[in-house]
Amino acid sequence: MKLRFNRLSLFGLGGALVAVLLSATAALAQDSSSDGTMPAIFAGGMILFILVICAAIYVYMALALSTIATKTHTENPWLASIPIANIVLMLNVAKKPIWWIVLFFIPIVSIVMGIIVWMSIAEARGKPNWWGILLIVPIVGIIVPGYLAWAD
């Protein structure tokens, strides 16, 4: 899978990050004196750090799901990078009905449906279905899609 970025999209992403940081520093600044600038700068740095970590996890999950879709010969593996469409891709890989996407938008039911779908994805990759249950364990839940994608 080839990812292409042009300079304009990277410039727009950088501009969006600067806008978020500037708005966070302005919102968190208590007063205009020098005493309030350090917490605001720290808060802006923390927001930037969290955004970068979240973006890295999102790209990792998208690449893992795209690889799983490619290895299971599912159509349109590029849907893994689109937020709602990746649920449709997961349902296609798991060979579940498309109307189950409605169940992913119900708060508690979505957790159960995610586990059921990931259990079916593990079976589609030839792995034991208990790998889907491991998604509820905090750190292991990030590792499982990578294992299902890149393990032989």
What does this structure look like?
The protein has 152 residues and is an all-alpha fold. Helix 1 packs antiparallel against helix 2. The chain has one domain (7-150). Helices cover 63% and strands 0% of the residues. The chain starts with 6 loop residues before the first helix and ends with a helix.
Average pLDDT metric: 85
User: Residue share in helices?
Assistant: 55-70%
The coarse silhouette is: elongated
| N-to-C CA distance | 19 Å
> Structural class, from secondary structure content?
mainly alpha
- H and E string: HHHHH
DSSP helix count?
5
Determine Rg (CA atoms, Å).
Answer: 19 Å
Number of domains: 1
Strand content: under 5%
List unreliable stretches of 5+ residues. none
Biggest sheet: strands, sense, closure? none
List how many beta strands DSSP finds.
Answer: 0
Topology:
Blueprint lengths: L6 H22 L8 H35 L13 H10 L12 H18 L15 H11 L2
